[in-house]
Write a structure and sequence with these properties.
Number of helices: 25
Strand content: under 5%
Order of helices and strands: HHHHHHHHHHHHHHHHHHHHHHHHH
Radius of gyration: 26 Å
Helix content: over 70%
Number of strands: 0
Low-confidence stretches: 113-119, 488-495
Length: about 500
Amino acid sequence: MARANPARSPYAATRHLLKYAGDPRQLRRNPLTRVDFAGRSVNEALCRIAVRVDAALDAIDTARHLAILLRVDLERHDPRGVATNLGLSTRQFYRERRLAHDAFHAAYLSASRTAISVESDFAQRLSWRATSLADSGETESATALFEDLLASGGDSAVTCDALWRLATIEAWSHRFDSARSHLDACREILERETVQEDRRVSLADGLAAAMLTLRWFTRGPAAVAPGPDGERLPENERTTLTRASAALRSGQSSQALGLIRKLLNRPRTVGEPDVEFDLLALQAEVANFVFSDPSRGEQLFSRAAALASVHGLRGRELYARHQLSVARWMHSRRAEDRRAYRQLFDAVDRSLPVRLRSGLALVAADVEVAIGTPQRALAAAATAASLSTNGFELVSSRGLAAAALLRMGRLNDAVLEGGLATRAARAQGHARVLSLTQRICAQAYLVQGDRRAARSAIEESIECAMRFSSPYVQAQTQALWERIAGRKTLATVKA
């Protein structure tokens, strides 16, 4: 069979380059790379080429195109299987592949030719690219790339890194059994293998954060708090961020704030982009929840969205832009801000990680109940309930559904749904949700003329709100209590 001619076209050249990356005999034939061998040793030339390939791949801003280049051209996966994973017909796949190579060709030509002294770590780069693909919704491609890394027989650190990252992806995809299996394998390797100390610290942090994430998604955010058995886990960035985020979700705002301050006060260098994003986004959420400071929240979400965009973290970018639009709408109440938010939410599709869709649906239900349309709130709450994996999420979505039903004037349905959610929240210890459900029940009882039942419900609601809700919710609850009780002070309730 005749050898492929890389000089035939730019498409042929880029396919040849990626197929034979690391093969000096083949790369000398390629018009894109042969100039790099002039006056240099083979290792120097391969190093320059590898850096330019890395830079060109980093410049690809479409997750699907990056997945095609990595899986088909670098990792040599079957194109038919990749097309199926990406949900493309054969014709669409080859059209997208051509566009991917066009983008790579342009990026490769513009990549810096500056000489460097060390080669890039291919395994680390592939791991990060797989992470960004998963974040952007290309979960199957990310999983396949991590499986390639695990099958490559790399050293212990590479294997552990791939295992905890793959487990995190699986947790966000609600593949909990697979996530547990990979986390167990990672822990076993760390316990028995010798790993360089700085790598061990970062791997233990990633493993602990992934374990907490899995526990959160299966049992609710309150399960991430330190248990009575005095469980000790690493207090590094990923672990601390996970604990702080879970604390905020469950209404433990003071605990979340303390953990964030601990992170900000310790000496730190710029970390991986996903960690930097998560810290910015969490600070923004705390600004909105704890301090009711929408301007600060908007500023931080805007920075987080820009950071995610630069690093190809499309899922995180969507989350930040989603929260930014929520903050703007809540602050301004303008129709154009409402439209901007709804356009973002309505564009969310099934390609994104199910955990991300679940979180966005809960936010949508909450904001639509507060200042939007109850019909949209009810639909979002139903979506959140269908995606829930723990009692906290299910009870939260049912509470928001009760609030939507109340706004629609369906009092009996609201009381029934709110009552069921209240009993579940009380039984499971979800105080933040109990504050919501009892406030809804109190409103419904008041409209029905049952002031005694309304007062009983609002007193339990306000007791929970004072500890586990935002200042905005506390003010709402206080105002309703005053309507029901006919008083202007909470002294008797506090007593």
